[in-house]
Amino acid sequence: MTLALSGRIVATLFLASSLSFAAPAPAAAKAPFPAEGVWRGEFTIDGDPIPFNFEVKGKRAQDATFTLLNGSRTDRFKVTPRDDGTFSVRMNTYDAVLEGKVSDDGKHLVGQYKDLVPSRNGARNLAFTAEHDAAWRFVKPGQDEAPAADLSGKWAVQTIDKAARQDKRNQVALLKQEGNHLSGVFMTVVGDTRELEGTVQGNRFYLSGFSGPSPLLIRGTIDEDGNIQGAFGSGIYNVVKFEAEKSDKVELPDPYKLTFLKDGQDRIDFSFPDLQGKQVSLQDDKYRGKVVIVEVIGTWCPNCTDQTYFLAPWFKQNHHRGVEAVAVAFEQEDNFDYFQKTLTTFKDYFDIRYDIVFGGIADKKVATEKLKGLNYMAAFPTTIIIGRDGKVREIYTGYTGTVTGEYHKDYVTRFNSLLDGLIAEPDPYAASAATPATAASLAVAP
């Protein structure tokens, strides 16, 4: 058996179609629609396949849903009907769409992922094909090779610099293997890969993931000592090699200590336009005496999306307790109109009830310069928690999604504990809300 695979990509995907009903004339048949059930798709990059799975439900485009499948993770997208026999699936809040055609029998697809960011002009478009009734990912049923090892466990991962062959950065992988089936996640200081799914075949292993914005492929080998070596990519960028060994004690650098305030500073400040073009500042009366959550995000960022899945409903449940929040978005275009379009979609999709403002182009150096007070913006997302006195109390770099298990639970527990404590603190500006007469008497008191 040969599995010709490599690298990894960034993009986004998926499905749809339309129904064309004509007058009851024999020649006017409706456009074919993808058959219901599980499918196997495949991107081809430089001749190498990147597999993914999805499920179609609904016999008509108007009723259909398209769901990407990655282990226990599911991401659902809506189908947009078209009248020309093609299908289209918008990637929810990501600025990309899948377009293509379905075969007459409804069991084969061919199309293209289209990147809709204007300045890239389609440079990241990807071709794909897909077949119906194929739930396998890397190996067809009946063709498995007995695995040489069980990769279940926690792994200390080191990426390797190509030129100097030096350790570049730490990662932690959490893997689970059942027979040939392999699943798991790779965590870095800036976030995680979301859930990956794949296989172990002999002394080789393969993992892939596609959840909307970022198709990902990881492949590697198992050596005689049970350690692994492999390669993965980051978006459409160069392939990165890695080595790993099992370790129950390995941990990432503390995400609460990576980004911090400059010496002598105890707060941050900014003034950015919101979706209506109105300037928003942390000095505004709206935030005075409130606990404030500042979320630095980008709609292009998968971990930012996962963070918003957590924060948007949390805010709706806790806003009445004296909490405000503001999302500062750094986008793929340094253009207010583009921000307004993409973030309006983002706001509506997540039902966000807090302010969203435009920070500028998606660049860590730009974000560092504009968020006055920070030493360096190490990652999108970054969460900044501010007390009622306006002082920064905590900064968290990245986001650990639900697939990370105890890491995510620990994050949520610490977040809630900190917010509960800050909310319980008295408002130091409460005296300023006194009546004019009271305020005057206080001003002249000896």
Describe this protein's structure.
One of its GO terms (molecular function) is antioxidant activity. It comes from Stenotrophomonas rhizophila. This protein is of the alpha+beta class. Among the domains are: 153-246, Lipocalin (Beta Barrel), CATH 2.40.128; 271-400 and 411-428, Glutaredoxin, CATH 3.40.30.10. It has helices spanning 302-318, 336-350, 364-370, 406-424, 436-444, and strands at 37-45, 48-57, 65-70, 73-78, 86-90, 96-102, 108-115, 126-132, 153-160, 167-178, 181-188, 191-192, 196-201, 204-209, 216-222, 228-232, 240-246, 271-273, 279-281, 291-297, 323-331, 355-361, 382-386, 392-397. The strands form 4 sheets. It has an 8-stranded antiparallel β-sheet with strand order 4-3-2-1-8-7-6-5, with no helix packed on it. An 8-stranded antiparallel barrel has the order 9-10-11-13-14-15-16-17. Strand 2 and strand 3 form a beta hairpin. The chain is globular, with a radius of gyration of 25 Å.
The whole-angstrom Rg is 25 Å
Sheet with the most strands? 8 strands, antiparallel
Question: From the helix content, strand content and strand pairing, which structural class follows?
Answer: alpha+beta
Order of helices and strands: EEEEEEEEEEEEEEEEEEEEHEHEHEEHH
Strand arrangement across the biggest beta sheet: 4-3-2-1-8-7-6-5
Could you list the spans in which at least 5 consecutive residues all have pLDDT below 50? 1-28, 437-446
Portion in strands = 35-45%
Mean pLDDT figure: 87
Protein name: Peroxiredoxin
Organism: Stenotrophomonas rhizophila
GO molecular function: antioxidant activity; oxidoreductase activity
Domain Thioredoxin: 261-417
